[in-house]
Amino acid sequence: MEVNQFDDKAERALALLLEKFWILRLEEPETYQLIREREKVLKRYVDDKLGFDLIVHQHFIKLEKIPVEPKSWMGIQDFQEPRDYAMFCCALAFTENRSVDEQFLLSDICEEIKDLYPGEFPLDWTNYNHRRSLVRVIKMLEKVTILKSVEGEIDRFAMDAEQEVLYETTVYARYFMRSYPRDLFEYETTEEILASEWERHEADERRKRVYRKLFISPVVHREGEDDPDFAYIRNFRNRLREDIEEHTQFRLEVFKNAALLVADERKQELSLFPDQKAIMDVALHMASYLRSQDTYQPDELGTIRISRIALEEVVTEVRGIYGTGWSKHYRESTIASMTNELVDWLWDWEMLDVEPVTEAYIIKPLFGRATGHYPKDFLAREGETHEQES
Predict the structure, then answer these.
(1) Which CATH number characterizes residue 12's domain?
(2) Which InterPro entries match (predicted)?
């Protein structure tokens, strides 16, 4: 049954498409069917507003999400080195040339990756770090269902290069990479690849850029006095707000230096701030502290510049005030390690940047939207608990 109206189920389907890399029919048959039934209205909306392609295949459904500009958090979080990505691409080349359900040994893909690897220095499977890279790559291929383990475990390869595992390729192996407007070898830089994406959207590029930024990133910050994307949001905020609230579960909030989509209800399928990670307590309390201090005043773009030493001093102060209720890990961590973790986390949420020359931290306006306080009687109750424990 095909539905021609953008109803609540189409709204949920759009949220799932934006959140997931793809929906596999075998693993999520109900979600697959939901999207199939609303395929027409979904395709029309994502093409008109974002310029994205919705690919509906008999085995999977995938929304090709291409950002306006790449961010670090968009990478594969399990990867640790550029080498991991290079090896991953070599592995994809290997699997794309295999038939569906064709079986092969780990040593086969090791040999192929080694031959294809473009690095300045060749791969050496006697090198523990190279083997660990391969383990991360293979696990990612399994995670996205490109490979399926038949016999054996990849973790053993990290300790012993002679270990074998039997794999088979899946039907999805040839569809992981997206298609490009031209042959990949015609591009020399990633900037050229991103620029070519707009060749088919010249007439309404600004609107689609804005929608992509709002839907893919945590926030759209005003980058200067002359920021055409942010100016578009400011000028058309009412129209944007009406459309977004009609078709999604988000609300558009626009401030002087930031625009973002907000969810009023916590949905399991969404990546939301704040989540349940313990680092959230540290971050929310730090936001409250900075808000209360006259020392740290934002500039015209709403940013606060702070040195590493000053940031560690802030973290020390914040732990002294709020640390009683933090997890044991953060109560006992060194200030340096806790600051590192906080910086990484704020970077991923686009709440912090690093100034290239001075390496000062730039706290962005989105962080000013966050705050966290204990209930009024919390510290009293914590004191009673510690007295009973002692």
Answers:
(1) 1.10.10
(2) CHP02678
